[in-house]
Amino acid sequence: MSLSRWMDLTTPVPAAAACSAIEIEPAAWRDLAKDIAAAGGRLLALWAASRPGDASVLRVVAISPPRVLLVNVRLARGARQYPGIADVFPSAARLQRAAFDLTGLRSTDGDARPWLRHAAWPADAFPLRNGSMPPPPPSPVDDYAFVRVEGDGVHEIPVGPVHAGIIEPGHFRFSVVGEKVLRLEERLGYVHKGIERRFTELPILEGQRLAARVSGDSGVAFSWAYCQALEHMSRTAVPPRAAWLRALALELERAANHLGDLGALGNDAGFAFGLAQFSRLKEHLLRATEQALGQRYLLDFVAPGGTRVDLPPGGAAALRRCIDELAAEVPVLRGIYDEHPGLRDRFSGAGAVSPELASWLGLVGLAGRASGQPLDLRVDVPQPPYDRLGVHRSVLNDGDVLARVTIRFEELAESLRLLRDLLGTLPGGNHAARVIVPPAGAVGVGLVEGWRGPVVVGLDAGPDGTIQRCHPQDPSWHNWPALEHAIIGNIVPDFPLINKSFNLSYSGHDL
Amino acid sequence: MLKTLHRIAQTGIVTEPPPGVDEELRVRDALERSIREVLGRALCIRQVDAGSCNACELEIHALGNPLYSLESLGIRFVASPRHADLLLVTGPVSRHMEVALRRTYDATPDPKLVVAVGDCGACGGIFGTGYASLGAVSSVIPVDVVVPGCPPSPTRLLQGILTAVSTPRGKSLPTPSE
Fold it and tell me: Is residue B27 part of a domain?
């Protein structure tokens, strides 16, 4: 069956604008997944919901532009297993393992190792199913079955969870011969702090505060995606000014992160000048953001119905001054990066992910666009005001560190253009609408292209303004596996540079 | 190369001007003196992310930019706890990071200082405590100073480090004021 035939079976849900929902039996799930893949579709999110007494459900968000599909795989009452799809969408493997750790729903795929669960809770307890959780097991350390590489001269280098720099914790197990990496295996989950369970303890009209802190570098993207889901569920019309201000905040977030990464990437290649220059510019942008919108990092800016605060008179001028400065200075720095033989040497060819591999792995976001995967939600399923902005999409095919640096330069320039445009066309009116509590049982999906890639939030309303289930999906889930491939054949000292060029989230992944 | 040198010359020194001008700078001047008085040398910091959302890390990074220029004050971040005088710890402490945090603390030579960063490091913040979160840093290791904020600004982080360096161990936990 082709994907369009499946689409005939869908019902538009009050989820995201372009989102249709389909409810299927577990037996049909693999066929649908294969048809989504055959139509060039992408897996964006996968999570499970299981409560004692209710039939369990597996939820999946997939995209085949311009269509977004919310698939509900409804299990029979009492059933705890569903067909796995890791052979169709490789990034589903870890998502399915995580879904088991949290809900006890198991896929039929082979790898039964825990993923998010280390030693904080016993294997037979499920934080999103159990009412109360048992105390943690006596030993605070567990033993994870890394894949061993055998052979003459092969040795292992364990790194982390505490890394040498100021970065998030995770474990990398390198199998190397000499300096060359044969295999990298990641182990994540160290900063799992129970975010999805915590959501169920918050009022649904306040969940955006936690969403913003799923990954603090993407606070606008997550809080906007959360509010998008909520607003569709409660049928709230967001005022145009609010949509403009949210896009303004999102592009400020993108610009700040790209500036930070461009500096850090120069530094990781031994070019401290780059770090000094870009971190100076980033600080200017953060200060202008604070002057205009009240926070350096806009974790509390997007709120249900619109934004928490309006852009004050004078705020636009502060932002414009900074944007003008960046628009003048970044091209000069880009010229220096382009012409620096040492940087070119380190960037070019390092950590390459070919478009074929990227397509197979389902690479998304800026790393995806550096490897020929064009998906950009701002272009493919544009929400207001992006439907009127005409975002220029940047795509390259080399897939190496250089390509990921170049995409950042291009997207930074585009963000600066968008920021000017947004400030120039900012509508008047209210910056927020009143939001009513959505009815129990309502389901919503929010989709926002964050600086790293597509951010998805799936939301289920409980009774009396509570959250039944909320699943925030960071794009890093799809890109972490690609890093394991990108490093193969490279030398260990290039790992920090390659890792930085992806700059994936740990907190957003570990939840 | 010429372009790079030209750019460096054109940028000049952007580190903000010396003491007496504003509060932020007064703090930095006092900080440098305190460090010299207490330690007689540079202060070495090991940062530990024990469960943060990464926002605190971004602001800790900012301390190194040319406007705050932490290194010019004699403070630097080091790669190993064995080289550190002070641990700068963000939270909430996840149960999965509890052992790593304890081991990092144990590997840091005495006398050592601990600064807990952010609302989450202070009390668990929005994540609170639960099956996977232990909340405050002080629930796992002794803490000298708490810097609240979500995330705290680089200026507040500097104030926190100052307070830690100038506070004798064993007294009640001070909180730097806004």
Answer: yes
